[in-house]
Amino acid sequence: MSLVFKPIGIITGLLAGIIGKKIFDLVWGLIDEEDAPEPQYREIGLVKLGLALVIQGAIFRAVRGLTEHGTRHAFARLTGEWPGEEKPEPKED
Question: How close are the terminal C-alpha atoms of the chain, in Å?
């Protein structure tokens, strides 16, 4: 069943990336009037760049994780099978 889910996961992952970018742009607009700094710019402060990257990473990770989990739930409702593990394996000490 994971082969059937894989293309669905890829498509929703791409959509999550687009949504995450839009959300980041909105949030960054509240922080600074200029566009968010990118690592390829020579004349950019490291603090500002670091802040932008942390915010962008957190937003992207949250949107992607929530989208993936929701997609898996929808897939399970449609097919009756969960595409992945039920729960994590317990850690051994």
Answer: 33
pLDDT in tens, 58-72: 999 999 999 999 999
Contact 6, 41 (CB under 8 A): no
- For residues 64 and 12, give the distance between their C-alpha atoms in angstroms, rounded to a whole number: 9
pLDDT tens column, 75-89: 999 999 999 887 888
Distances (CA, A) of 57 to 3, 17, 25, 39: 28, 11, 12, 14
Best CA proximity match to 1, nearest among 76, 53, 52: 76
- What is the token pair recorded at 2? 């994971």
Other Cβ atoms less than 10 A from the Cβ of 56: the count is: 18
